[in-house]
Give the backbone structure.
Amino acid sequence: MRARILDASEKAFSEADFHSVQVETVASLAGVGKGTIYRYFRDKGALYVDTLTRAMGRVVSQMEEKAQSNGEPEARLRAALRALAEFFERDRGLLESMMRGQLALKEEDRRKLKEQGDRMNALLRSVVEEGISRSCFRGVNPALAAWVLRGACVVTMMQGPQEGSTVGAVEEICDIVLSGLRSH
């Protein structure tokens, strides 16, 4: 039942922002009564956070799969960030909802979302660290490199590419940032 509610919630929040989505809408999409929603979630904020946390968990798992595969660190970073871009290119509405709706959340709920972002940064940082240790990348601050990669990609996904696809724009960001990381 919880998964069905989260599926319905993801659809609703992909189509409208936090303030526009009504719990009744989610209940209707899930085929349950409004009271059933509150058996599983304390309020709309908790429903929203659990919806986004589940979606972020999926994208981070896809990124982990790519980053932990065989291959050179640069190729693995590119593949992980491409997975991020592809995920949100398929569901741009969810990305927009995620970015706009966080301000309406309680601190404890924002922390849950931050944990997924931290997981993403740790993943990228570990690949950069490996690249440094294997002399593929020069000795930079790996945490900062991870932040720059993720941040540039997220901003590009939010703004939309100047031309072409979001995935193509993220690949171009990888070209720019990774050219500065490469050891010469």
User: Anything to note?
Assistant: The chain has one domain: 48-181. The chain has a mean pLDDT of 89. The CA atoms of residues 140 and 181 lie 7 Å apart. The longest helix spans residues 107-133.
